Protein 1
Amino acid sequence: MAEIKKKAKTTNPFEIIVEALFNFFENKVYLYAFIALAVGFLIIFPNVSSRFTQEIMTNLFFYVVVCLGLNIIVGYAGLLHLGYAAFFAVGAYTTGILSSRMGMDFWLTIPFSVVAAVIAGLAIGFPTLRLRGDYLAIVTLGFGEITRLTIRNLDITGGAIGLIGIQRPVFFGITLNQISHFYYMFFILAIIAIIVSYRLENSRMGRAWAYIREDEDAAAAMGINVVTTRLYAFIIGSSFGAVGGSFFAAKMTAISPDSFMFIHSVMFLMAVVLGGMGKIPGVVLGSMLVVLIPEVARGIGPYRLLIFGFLLLIIMLYRPQGIWPDKPAISAKE
Amino acid sequence: MAIHEILIQQLFNGLLIGSFYGLVAIGYSMVYGIIKLLNFAHGDIYMLGAFSGLVFLSIATPAIGAGWGSLILGMLISMLLVGLVGVFIQRVAYRPMLKAPRLSILITALAVSMILYNTVMLLSSGRFLPFRTEISTESFFLGPLRLTETRVVLIVAAFALMFIMHMFITKTMYGKAMRAISLDRDTCQLMGIDVYKIIALTFFVGSALAAAAGIMAGVYYGTIHFYMGFLIGLKAFTAAVIGGIGIIPGAMLGGLLLGLLESFGTQIPFIGTVWKDVFSFAFLILFLIFKPNGLLGRSESERM
């Protein structure tokens, strides 16, 4: 984790700017002032923007929530997860079925979707993580496909058409049905996800994840139970996805198997890897890139995945730590 | 049809599909054995083989006519070309990552897979393309077994390729070098084996076999599609795990077994063809729980 490299004075303008910024935000007052400004701006944002922009921003917050969950698995624990959309689907369909078929209140369905994600996570994670970390990648890939096939073929999930008539959440007597409501809902959810991620990263568990990621054998020798610790990362991360899925279902009121394709798993992974695995600001940046690039550059439509594939390859070959810069050596003097 | 006729027919179908799985699984398993990489792009290599076969046939058919001759020639050329593509991918994408953290090389493999299938998707406009061979589709009976010329040739060719592969791995110097590298790469380097050359050769052979399987699948199903490699990549992994990953005869055995399980599994009324893929995935999970080293694997647990 703490690779403290002695860096020579750089002449690269990008690095000079980054270093200057890091030094600037070293002062906590500036940092908090900046965060307060950003949050303040985002709070008044729906009053000064169009519905369309709000829709995009809501989508961005949604990506931040889901990708922070994936980041726990990929970034903190160093496990590749290629079926994240399936856990997202588990959450969305649990809420969808309970809400549209049994008329359960939205907020009550959330614990159920977390429980469903934990069960699915255990069923997939336990046999796989016991063996080798890499097996998880392909087993989750398979699970993603199988989940999609299953919800397509079952009656209770509405088959290929999906579920309709999922109830809107009611919050203190207000039915959330405007885009600005969902904007604030996902905004709050994103802030909660950031705080939870931050607390997890700096917890005992978070340090154990970093240790296992860097050196599995040494971690085991220090008394960390590698399998259980990884399983925790997998389950906690999957639960994030399920909660994201529940809110997604409530926002859309209709869900179908097409929202949970392999492509979506790849997009979530892109956001985590592009910005920088294991770094919260990196994940936020990555989500911004993945959500905003296709909106800004409309023409790339059919080439989107090809471009993202090349980006992924280039990032891995030349900048595996992602776009978000690591802290420069100066700030790691403790 | 009487029950035993259905069973024999399903046995044949299972072996045929299973031999495709086996051919793809060999490459998967070899690469895993030698550099411990789950090569997600391997299914796409199979797809690439089918498309390159189709391109060759559409160019060559007017010149040398249709039939088995041009098909076999096309298959050999595609195997060579796709094998070289495999070596190129290995050189550009995987070789710089051999010393990097394992997560990086897995993501690289995913990136390669995305690049391959999206390129083919754009070139083929995402359509299902017919794979016409103009080989007689008349069926004849061998006892209770209904066969066509295509199916007989395909199954013979698949088993011949597996046999050649087995001989290559067990009887030649190169095969010996591959097996040695999968045991201990660093020691092999000390013993004077050109490790990178052998890794490149592994990718060549694995990709060529996948390409052959892709063309055979094209002939068998009659259509090809850019996404055809996705599921077979998963199936090949399942086959490799069933047989014991890193073990070549295991991959063939696993492939055949998975083919049989699927073809008999779909005969069980409750399962049916809709649940075929779910069924084989369930088998993967069961194998990972109860026999993680596979049928032919050693029982000792592996340490990284």
Note: The radius of gyration of chain B is 19 Å.
Protein 2
Amino acid sequence: MSTGSAAAHPAAAPSLTSVFVRLKLSLLRNGLRQSTGRTVAYVASIAVGLVFAAGAVLGLIALRGNAHVGALVVLLTGILTLGWAVMPLFFPAGDETLDPTRLVMLPLRPRPLIVSLLVASLVGIGPVVTFALVAGSVIAVAEGPVAAAVGVLAVVLVVLVCVSLARAVATASVRLLTSRRGRDLAVLSGLFIAIGAQGVNIAAQKLGRPDGLSVLEPLGDVLRWVPPASAISAVDDAGHGAYGRAAVGLSLTAVVLVLLLWWWQRTLTALMTSPDSSTLQAVEKDSGRQSGSGDRGPARLLPGGRTGTVMLRTLRYAWRDPKSKMSWATALGVGLLVPVVSSVQGNGSIYTAFSASALLGLQMYNQFGQDTSAFWMVASTISTPRDAYQELRARALTLALVAVPYVTLVVIGTAALIGPWSSFLEVYGLSLALLGALLATGALSSALFPYSIPSEGNKNVAPGQGAIAWFSLFGGLLIGAGLSLPLLALTIWLHVAGLHGLLWVLLPVGVVYGAGVAELGLRVAAPRVARRLPEILTAVSKG
Amino acid sequence: MADDGEQIDERAGSAGAEAGPAAAPGGSAGPDSGTAGPPAVRVQGLWKKFGEQVAVSGIDLTLPAGRFIGLVGPNGAGKTTTLSMVTGLLRPDAGLVEIGGHDVWRDPVAVKSRIGVLPEGLRLFERLSGRELLGYIGRLRGLPGDEVDKRAGQLLDVLDLSGSQNKLVVDYSTGMRKKIGLAAALLHNPEILFLDEPFEGVDPVSAQTIRGVLERYTASGATVIFSSHVMELVESLCDWVAVIAAGRIRADGPLAQVRGTAPSLQDAFLELVGASDRGAGRELDWLGGGGAR
């Protein structure tokens, strides 16, 4: 369709549209030419996408005739559109042809450029899946030949609106996304995805109940007038003879498409003709971060020497580095969530408080991967196992600085919410022992199984190192739990033998045991770190 | 700081031995300063393979102390791999590396305190500000906090980074990153400085600043070993050159000796790596000003 109009405005000798389409196809093809692991992942993601689309289409067709299917497809279209709108914000590097700043130096006019970019964006697995879902939605609601004709129009409009929405949003936010702050935000977006997944989970549970689809009706009533979902409801209306409503629904979507294209062209022109951040940043003055030697404020309280230096650096990174911040936020959030959710659901036990120890203890894993290739600075200052021990101990202390008060609060909170208080000392002692065991195994696995954490995007493992990461995390968690077995055995024995009056013993024993096992782990790991510095550096430099 | 006194003594010794000018004859047999203690770097039979690809194939090299030494070679010649192995950041498959007479892999305590490194392609702790980064690395090296802050302030001044000292390194330009990396490498006053492509992507003003600092540093008798593929730069800065291509040393010795009869180091280099007679293609007959398309 739009190919013709592009040919009518020739910008250069070969049609611009075909150039962009071929560029897109080459990029897709080159995705297959990477390492075997990536190729497999790439093919698998395409296969999963297609299977998902096919399943969704079959499901929609099966729902044909259901009383609430109208509301469902409208909602589905709405979610799909929302997905397209936020996708470029979360995956800015997902599509290289999306970045118009790469085209700035080429002599291109905005209108033919937009047509070409739009056609090129229709190539890919995302548009195919979208097309399948929208077509399935139309099939689910279309009744009669008029509805079918409106349906064809609706599919075209919805897909075009989705794609141009993504493009327009990407163009409008390219300044933000190419700045450092924007990329930092993109890394943190993983949190939003996790929260969104939780929402989807709850929604799916509600819809899964008998007659669950009726929940959608009020939402559907509103969404049916919101483009591009209005085009889908137009198909439904046309099937019931409400031609006026159908026409309004379709034209609403068409108007939105035109508006989107206009907005996109405007931002694209503005973007390609005004100076970008690389020029403006040079004038920017010192950002006025608190100056001085770094020995002020609370930093003064840290011990001297390597220990305090490493602790201060680690704490600064926890706040300033988006990856570290994200992993801290996840650990703190989920560690709290498990006891809270289980108490809300009413089937909680005070033992859910262990999640706080487990998640924070796992922060000790892959310590050097968190440094990225800047680990060379650490490596060049470690000459002896003693240096390595101090480095590891400082990182463990930083973790403990946050983890010990946090675990204390979570255990107190869980005892208060779920109870019983009589188990408080026992659970607290066991939690601290588990934390110590995880610090120990974390130190050792940091030495033996380091892997890269790419600093951009949502991935936390460099391609090809996934197995190492899973092995070290899950193996470590198992071994950490195993190391806590003596204390667990003591707990069970005290319970079985009926010595409930002595359960308080678990707190001091847990504290001593946790500290002891952590110290032992650091001592075992340190010489291995010192011996393996170049190997660790190579492993963590892949991101 | 007993170490400091020792360093100064050694420097004085090597500076004295360096009295002979750079063009001293017979350099290829090894360092011409046979009397002044160990060479800065001694490498024997150094090998490194990445999968099937041999990056460094049996390098033997002796670099004298107290010189400004250039390691030159085309892209992919093995410069970075060699420097990484020499500085202990990458483990060689085979071979011996000694710095100031100490084995890099057996005696890291003696080696790591004596060298400063500015690697290429590895990051810094970029979420620290320039000043915080220097404070961090200085303290990791075991220097007292006050001394670190004093030296950091002076280095930031000399390298023209004072205005950006509180900005995060992640927001620095390439030239500023090289300069803060250089400051981090110099902070503990090393005897030998290894710099991998210190002038790559650096603007002329920053390059001149870096140059000034390095010249001052070598004038005191310290050794600088840096890699580059800009021959004019090497020719104007160095008094000793090693040419590396395809993972092997093609020539090494005092600058004048490596240059030989060639008009410039560039010509000598092209001849050594076998790229001298690749003429500017006659095929490009359409290329020229004036004619459109």
Note: The interface with chain B takes residues 180, 281-282, 285-291, 293-295, 304-306, 308-310, 312-313, 316-317, 320-321, 371-374, 376-384, 533-535, 537-538, 541 of chain A (CB under 8 Å).
Protein 3
Amino acid sequence: MKKRGFGYGCIFYGTGYGNGFPDISRSIAELDTKGHINIYVGATEVGQGAKTILGQIAAEALDVPVEIVTLIHEDTSITPDAGTAAASRQTYNTGNAVKISAEELKKEIIVVAKGLLNEDHLEISNGVIRSNTSDKTLTLKDIAEASGGGFLRKDGIFQANTTEMDPETGQGNPYWPYTINAYAVEVEVDTTTGIVDIIRAACSQDVGRAINPSLVEGQIDGGFAMGLGYAIFEDINLDKGRIKHNRFTNYLIPTALDMPEIEKIIVEDPESTGPFGAKGIGEPVMIAAAPAILNAIYDAVGVRLTEIPVTPEKLLKALKKREG
Amino acid sequence: MDIKNVFQAKDVPEAINLLDQYGEAAKVIAGGTDIIIALRENHVKVSVLVDISSIKELKEIKTSDDWVEMGAAVTFTEVMDYFKGHKEYSGLIEAASLVGSPQIRNAATIGGNICNASPAADFVPPLLALDAVLTVEGKEGKREVRLEDFLLDKGRVDLNKGELLTTIKFIRLRKGQTVTFSKLGLRKALAISRLSTAVYLEIDDDEKCAEVRVASGSIGKHGLRERVAEESLKGKNLDKAAIDEASKVLSNEVEKRLAGRSSCEFKKDAVEGIFLKAVEKAMVHNGDGSYCAMGTQYYPRAAGKE
């Protein structure tokens, strides 16, 4: 018999290294001889979209078209350290460092422009330096040439604001910031075979500010897939310390056919210390998926499973045990 | 992997000559989805591969008045295309569609699935349920062998030195006849079967089960006919009680067969659900309490595209 059920899971998650550990990102923003912007940053793109959004953050901070921003990363000989692509920290930490370096570069560009135009009230708008009091304009290329054909370079450094917990009082500031989300999942359990089918899911994700909504949605799909594998497929099958499921033939991860449609609800509540309000979501989008699936299985068949993955074998056994 | 020569045979006699010439040193390659992995992992050690994937006569499916005949090098994608829309053959379509992934189905062949002789081979149970007959060709000539007799053990088939499996045939389905398949894989694609059953069902005009053949995968050394389940259903009205009883009989049989194995407890229970699904797929309830075999209502459309 097929039985359906709903389940929810919700979490809050502190992003970054936390607990006072030095969580530092560095960035260099540069105006090159062609009038283009280069961002040097040690952040690693692992598919999460750092390469895209760090360029967006620089373009937004400078008010230049994103097309003239080049991100130079993952090359330790020419980029400053931006920490690991871990702890859901690149958007927040490195995003802040990139923003600071871009803002510093912007100030420097304005200083050079003031000298060239003899004007005090200047701003950059869509890649062009304009005067607020006259029609005078300059291009970024003009600035690059005026600064001796060399490069204008500015550093940005950002450190997350956390402190170690006081072991006596339990007080402190262990993480900054926190990210919150909730998953809803509908499953169908075949009580004759123990197979769990995920019918549909919804994810409500607090992102602070979505720098790139499509990438947020991609992160949710990816996170749910990992949570789904964690909940019902992935089993390393340890036997006296040996991993028996040591290949993807038997260590099963979800395929596209196993993924349901996920309704994504992006909640924007800007984080005051984040770059344009953004926070990290990489790990959070995974964490609540498995609990929601296990809750949905419970709702469907009334059996509370406390061990993952919930394979057909385990589920069928639990169903039989309940029947006595 | 230490392959010295790969020969691309242009016809069956050439392939047989090569197999005869190189003997133990040679293996057949068609889609390569099993043997390449076996070679890489040193499970198979040969120095010569005889590629049969471009032998035209092994890549055809033909439907005559009495028989449907498929070449051994037909791929699963080709099986799915050929039988598309013919619900009486849904078991063949479904089993083919559950093999690996689209890339694997484009390359892997039905002959390879049989000769690799994995207990989990997806395409074997529906062919057993259709009581398929194989043609094997060698230096000495042709011989025919029933699939059930061809499967000897896990990984072992009745193929002598220099012999090649060339065709797989079964009696064309008529009014009231159908074959279905049901598989338990641990995910929806790229899943090795944990358990599968196929059912051939013939329902007569009195809605009685005139003939039934049940086959299974992954609950024995190779795909098996499940005769106790067949006996339990034969001649009966296919009501819930009769079908439930047959599934219990099958479950008991599986329990006996797998006794002492860690998978026994799960498989003896799950086989009931998988068997029920295959039987249900084979029957169409007409809405007035009566039923007929799947595909019957589409009859007399000719099978295949001749």
Note: Helices of chain A lie at 50-62, 90-117, 140-146, 213-233, 284-287, 289-301, 312-323.
